[in-house]
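--- STAGE predict ---
source: upstream dedup step, 1 unique chain passed
mode: sequence only
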Amino acid sequence: MSRIASRPTSHLLELHLVSWRAYFVLGAILLMLLILAGRAIYLQSLRHEFLQRKGDALASRVVELPAHRGMIADRTGEPLAISTPVESLWANPSAVQLSPSQLKQLAAVLGMSAQEIQVKLAAKEKEFVYIKRRLPPDQAAAVAQLGIAGMALQREYRRYYPAGEVAAHLLGFTGLDDSGQEGMELAHQATLAGVPGSRRVLKDRKGNIFEDLASILSPKPGQDLTLSIDMRLQYLAYRELQAAVLANKAKAGAIVVLDAKTGEILALANVPSFNPNNREGVKPWQMRNHAVTDEYEPGSTMKPFTIAAAMDTGKYRPDTLIDTDNGSYVVGTKRIHDAHPHGMLTVSQVIQKSSNVGASKIALSMSPEYMWTEFHNAGFGIVPQVGFPGAASGSLRPYQKWRPIEQATMSYGNGISVSLLQLAQAYTVFTNHGVIKPVTMLKLNGATPVGTRVFSAQSADAVIPMLESVISVEGTAPQAAIEGYRVAGKTGTAHKPDRGGYSADKYIASFIGFAPASNPRLIIAVMVDEPAAGQYYGGTVSAPVFKQVMQGALRQLDIAPDKPITQRPIPAATTGEDESL
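--- STAGE serialize ---
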């Protein structure tokens, strides 16, 4: 019989599980689950706002709200610059989903090539790029209909100038960001621009706004600006200047119309001009504001200041005789000429005949310091405080460096430079009894600015009849005469500086005058640069522009005549004038 032997066991091989350890592990697991559950309940109920902020931070963005730019208007309230809402197309390149057919459609709508669009979308590292800005309403609507993922339209403003090229140099223009770049738009940027606002929105990963959370700051619109300009006179001045530049085949021209009492600029125009609403292809020289920023030698339009300064010394009266040496006078090693020889002339006739020799002799009888002071007080060599960017100061050299020949030539406008606006302002001394008025492009609303005395009232007033004689048949500008009105003015014709000397065949033809002479209301200054159609004198090129603008302005402003109406014919042209030639 077989025996089954029992195997002995050892207590060392027995497994003894202690029950408390199992309970500890199970309890620890349950405790961790309870902590996690409690934390979840705490965050999702008691700290809901905290989680919301964390979630929003991933998609929340602050979007700028552009401010509406202030309107620019003329003195009567006619809009000159207004902002209209437009849409700009932007994209998040990394989120754009654009099929070949959509790309072709988008390019056709925007008037761009498909390659241009692809180049803009190639910047995958950027979250925001403009595809095209300032879309017209029809383009914006067509783009929206395409429904391209990752692209969106953004509201902006586009500046519009109803007067176009007529007031372009005066107003300037704005850039793509609607900030002023030139002219009054730049000068008054802080006033016109306003303050942008902002709002917080939620965007998806493609950049599309799917929820508007809150407004952070409301945009503050810019302030409107009312200019001193009268658009009726602005259109008139531009039209006549443009016609003169074309008729005389000139390089350029400029005109300034001032209120003779207040210094308000009623019109300011330049030719050539440009369309500020479409500046594509515009050359920089077309944007030059010749009336404000360009300097030129004024020629004989300076002679009235020489005469007024001389009469203030007490040495001269209107009837004082001056020997003009038959139109030729030597100063040092230089000879000064008159175009037409004269012998003895009164001070008044020096202005009427525009004698360089007479003006030179009168100038040299004054000390350089005194003459410089009088010219400086009349605004020469000083930037006009008109609030316009780039306004020129002109050039008036220190008197300590004057040689006698330089003092002589400055008396008739050579060796000194001015801007047309500066010269127009200087002539306010003759319309305000010797007091120069500040000039402004902003409407004064009836306020009369206080000026600064330059000449005595007696001397300044005595110059007016001399300037009236210039408009007579015996003077150099009969073409400036206006039926029914007393007109006072002065011609200027000067060779243009060229390579250290003066050009033989390039001229600046100018005329400046005011009316009615009995009670001046308007000052008009005209400058034509390089007339090339045969005539180049101020009396034949610029004086007719003055006449057309002045008589139209007097009628528009309903200014009463101050002279009996006659039927005396006015010569079509003068035979020539001496000026600074």
